[in-house]
Amino acid sequence: QVQLVESGGGMVQAGGSLRLSCAASGRTFSRYAMGWFRQAPGKEREFVAAINWNGDSTNYADSVKGRFTISRDNAKATLYLQMYSLKPEDTAVYYCAADPERWYSGTSYVSEYDYWGQGTQVTVSS
Description:
With 126 residues, the protein is an all-beta fold. The protein has strands at residues 4-7, 10-13, 18-24, 33-39, 46-51, 58-60, 68-73, 78-83, 92-99, 115-116, 120-125.
């Protein structure tokens, strides 16, 4: 089992940048594929980005491709999401999640992640 804690959210103007972090407890972080998801008010949780166990395979939603970068540091048991050129439509609560089964890839399906953090709010003003 792993516990996940997100940080780094905040309020930023359109065009700005933020870096989210997700700190994982336990020694098994490197065994999981990891993902970032987001949920805006009144909307379903949606996929943002995913990364496999060693970081050599990544996957992005079309809406963030070219603007966001997912990465991980297994030695620090931490997942990152660097966000550039933020838009008001990026406003949401951002969650990190861990998938222990498909460690070799990064899936985009909410249902395939077993462990979730509590979320961090990102607000982008126009």
